[in-house]
Target: Peptidase U35
Amino acid sequence: MKELRIAEIRAATPSEGSSLILTGRPIVYDQPTTINAPFGEYIEVIKRGALDKADITDVRLLYNHDMNKIPLARTPKTMGLSLDSAGLAMRAELPNTEDGRSVHTAVGRGDLSGMSFAFKVPKDGSQFDAKTNTRTITKIDKVYECSITPFPAYPQTSVEARSAIENIWGKLKSPERQAAKIKLNKILSRSVL
Model:
């Protein structure tokens, strides 16, 4: 299932001889997002301050989380990341390569407008409230990569947690699902995303 998250990205119009610059916001604070997982939906929110102690010193910019391709940029040399009250802001200088020009052109035309990211949450970095069906992320240890993507979701961020959750959920019948939400909270709170 597709999981959508709104993020912003813009391409600066290059003048002759200038760089291919992208700016964006791959992580937004306090914006509830519905995650559609095979076992059901839940709401996820990244709280303001979750990135305050996160390691953002070695982050790559990719297209669609493709780690088999050369990164489009990397901190700190060709990409800058900064925290502000809204979340994580990004400014990247893309290479003057076919991939760099293609991505820059697609963002400039509006064909690509979303961003996603891969990250790690510490053991005590998230909580799940079964009553509201909401996972709240309060602490992120590290951001590994930011991606420009046609469908702004972040399936790689919770693959491990979702696999564990799916195994439990698949074994349960309807009356057992409320109890499963409590187990889900335990899994999410200790999972490394």
